[in-house]
Amino acid sequence: MAEVQAEETGAVEIPRVILSFFDARQPNGEAWFGNVHKYAELPLNHLGLTVRYLEIHQPLPDPATLTDVRGMLLWNNNEQMEHPETFLQWVITLMETGKRVVLMGPAPWSADLQGVATPLHLREKFWNTLGFGFRDQWISFTHDLEIAYQDPQMVGFERPLPKQFSGYLELLPGSSDVQSHLKVRRGLDKKEENMPALAKNDLSS
To answer: pLDDT per residue over 150-162, tens digit each?
Structure first.
């Protein structure tokens, strides 16, 4: 009945599915043990979105067939996976079809299970497609960081930031629609700015 009414009124169905991946080969690797289910699925459901879980070792769907998919949320704890090049190229293709991608935590495609790093040009292409600049630089020593700017609506509104930061991947805005929510200064002269928290302004569309 709803489909008939939509056809009669000329309404367009809005994609409401968010893809997420789980690794069943890991201890407690089932989807319901993952961060997306524990922390994100309820708010997504409240917004009218549903999560579709895919096992990361299964064949990847053709992005052209994902007409009901709005985007993808990756929130894993690992930086290594089987066939990272194949998976990363698929994610890039997904973005090129117009799907939104949100990455929480480490990028799972940094290297394969033998520790061989994924080619730099492919990792750089991902970040560039997402709208960010990429230096492939991990900031390990954070004792000399100084907060230059923090967006109070996005950072530190639930609790204060820690006095010492964890290590992070350095990212830079790659286009005008990228907004920095947190900027820090580091180095002896405190002039070099890094941006650990970035987001594109159009994620909600």
So the answer is: 888 888 888 888 8
Rg (CA), the chain: 19
What is this structure's pTM? Answer: 0.81
Q: For 26-78, what is each residue's pLDDT tens digit?
A: 888 899 999 999 999 999 999 999 999 999 999 999 999 999 999 999 998 88
Three-state secondary structure string covering 60-83 = CCCHHHCCCEEEEEEECCCCECCC
Length in residues, the chain: 205
Helix axis angle, 84-96 relative to 120-130, nearest 10°? 30
Q: What is the DSSP letter of 38?
A: I
Q: Which helix (H) or strand (E) holds 148?
A: strand 146-150
Euclidean distance between CA atoms 203 and 205, whole angstroms: 6
Residues pairing with 194 in the sheet = 184
CA distance 196 to 175: 16
Which single residue is written with the structure tokens 């497609």?
A: 129
Distance of CA 7 to the CA centre of its chain: 35
Q: How many CB atoms lie within 10 A of CB 123?
A: 19
Cβ burial, residue 22 (10 Å; 0-12/13-18/19+)? buried
